[in-house]
From TrEMBL:
Domain (Nudix hydrolase) ranges: 1-127
Cofactor(s) this protein cannot do without: Mg(2+)
Pfam families to which the protein is assigned, alphabetical: NUDIX
InterPro entries the UniProt entry points to: NUDIX_hydrolase-like_dom_sf (IPR015797), NUDIX_hydrolase_dom (IPR000086)
Keyword Hydrolase in record: yes
Keywords: Hydrolase
Name of the featured protein: Unannotated protein
GO molecular function terms listed in the Swiss-Prot or TrEMBL record: hydrolase activity
Amino acid sequence: MSHPSLRVAALVPRGDDYLMLRTGTHWQLPAASVRIGETLAEAVVRALADQVGLVDAICGPFIGWAEAVEAVAPDTHSVTMYFRAVTLESETEPSSPSAEVRWIPSWDAAELGLADGLAEFLSDHGYIETLV
């Protein structure tokens, strides 16, 4: 890869719970790479429809960004833009049989085994509490 990839991730709150997706061993927010010609907001809405079956999602305000440069794969470099999103639906459908989708209570999120850097990002922006 000759340049960083641009990704978006969606934080969808429902009360004190957040929508999270597990496709392997780690829980993460629904996320997707931004396609050529697609706005960041369109990518957020697509990620929610494709990954968790939320077809009425609306992209909300920008939260922040995170950068990942993988030491084990030096050609892997991504920048993820995080947005809040809202939906009227609460029923979700994982994108594959091997995925799991749940509304996770904010007070449990840090203990779940989140994707690398996600707990720190959510804590830094006031969405969850972590132990220092």
